[in-house]
Fold this protein.
Amino acid sequence: NFIYSLPDRLGIDQQVDALREKLSRMGWDITPKTFMLVPGARETLTSLSQLYPIAVVSARGHRSTDAFLSKFNLHPFFKHIATAYTCEHTKPFPDPILWVAKKLDINPEECLMIGDTPIDIQAGKAAGAQTLGVLSGFGTRADLLQAGADMIIPSIANLPEILHM
């Protein structure tokens, strides 16, 4: 996430995106080929999407985000998708979370930002959202706590029980 947000921090995200697009058109696809879905994610999304509007907030570009969602047929679960270029700034800035809240017509304080990295938690906090750290990804418990996570769970599969579903 730090590397994905670095161009935004340096103010060169538009130029980097243009370079990625040009390389892609030339046959140099830099979208990762190997994606993994966290165990229990599909079941959790199925349960949550019946009760809550869900959105994606990714620090990755549109192509990479779309490739991941397409590979696992996850698009139907999400009302909105914010990628690194949806807003002026990406995570750890609050912009994409505020954008999603506006699209869903809810206050940011009513949002639950779920993430596995400190950058996810920092973005959620900056937006005024509630934050939930998940240990089934990249961040450690210490990292997520230091970033200010309101709660930490071992896996996204534990979310339904936390929300009493």
